[in-house]
Design a protein that fits this description.
By secondary structure, the protein is of the alpha+beta class. Helix content is about 20%, strand content about 20%. Strands 1-2-3-4-5 form a 5-stranded antiparallel sheet.
Length: about 120
């Protein structure tokens, strides 16, 4: 008779976005897709933070990152939105107020090269 190998799971706890947080993030992402500003996303869960990355094109680096750091909850707020160059666009204690950065700005790519 064949032996059964049990599945091995990673025992370390992971930080993840809650359903209400994901709903707010996906609402913003959906609006960006409809506007043609986003094409893909990725979700990462780590021991100390969770990441929702938004890609404008299928590239190696995300254009925007929404991160949740529960350890910063009592200082600057658990939620941070980063731009493509790693700049902090907004941080705060409430996910919905942090995501308002996507409503107030037009994210357009400016081409300062030679005109075609």
């Amino acid at each position: 008779m064949a032996s059964i190998t049990p599945l091995q799971f990673d025992k370390s706890p992971k930080i993840a976005f809650h359903r209400t947080e994901m709903s707010a993030i996906l609402d913003v992402y959906g609006k960006m897709v409809m506007a043609g500003q986003a094409k893909d996303y990725a979700i990462g869960m780590h021991e100390d933070h969770a990441v929702f990355a938004i890609f404008r094109r299928h590239a190696e680096a995300p254009t925007w990152r929404i991160e949740k750091f529960p350890a910063l909850r009592n200082q600057q707020g658990a939620y941070i939105v980063y731009g493509s160059q790693g700049q902090v666009l907004k941080r705060g204690h409430d996910i919905k107020t942090v995501l308002k950065v996507f409503e107030t700005r037009k994210f357009e790519v400016l081409n300062f090269g030679k005109p075609s």
